[in-house]
From TrEMBL:
NCBIfam families: PRK08290.1
Family assignment from sequence similarity: Belongs to the enoyl-CoA hydratase/isomerase family.
One Pfam family, short name: ECH_1
Span of the signal peptide: none
Protein name: Enoyl-CoA hydratase/carnithine racemase
Originating species: Rhodococcus rhodochrous J3
PANTHER family: ENOYL-COA HYDRATASE, IP11341P-RELATED
Amino acid sequence: MADKYIGYETSDRIATITLNRPEVANAQNGALLDELDAAWTRAGDDPEVSVIVLRAEGKHFSAGHDLRSGEPVPDKITLEMIYRNESRRYLEYSLRWRNIPKPSIAAVQGRCISGGLLLCWPCDLIVAADDASFSDPVVLMGIGGVEYHGHTWELGPRKAKEILFTGRPVTAEEAEQTGMVNRVVPRADLDTEVRMLAEQIAKMHPFGLRQAKRAVNQTLDVQGFYAAIQSVFDIHQTGHGNALSDSGWPVLMNLDEMKDNIR
């Protein structure tokens, strides 16, 4: 059965994975994330693939989690249920993508909101279109940030606090200055520039690429990255208790309505 929300193709040792739900700004329901994880695994297991590119159809890279996905919702939602689902789809998936032993490049255009960060941050390189912006406004929900809490590592502690405290977007140029983005290119050139970068990397020795990626990732882990991501995920879950309360739920809906405005 063909994937519904994810495109996948390979050529010249490059696997291109495409988010293909542009009608809702590539908002992530469970099926999209499961298909995406399968595509990452497929590329990781393919000996003919040296580089993985993650891109998105449409105006925006991703509006984050789809809070109106239409998927069945139990009559009673508990924190344990939320924890189990988010642990698998948001934390484990993102960490698995980060650690696939092949270089990966995210091509980001338009808005990348909250859960969208969980898709691009695990990639080794990020190339942003000049119209791209990155934001995590979930403090509006009484939650301290998305599940894969890479903010401090990607932006530095003070910039991370500013973005979380205000909810404002980070522009592509600002993201490049912090080192979160490798380069900024004109929107019309995004796919071409990413393809050229992927082709350049694909000429390198596959084992050398694997070892280089492992060296950098392990250095970050020694510095505390992996432990921090795990522990902050548990902190994130306490915010759901607030969002599930009577006072938190209207705020949750307001955030969802804000996302609708970009679709």
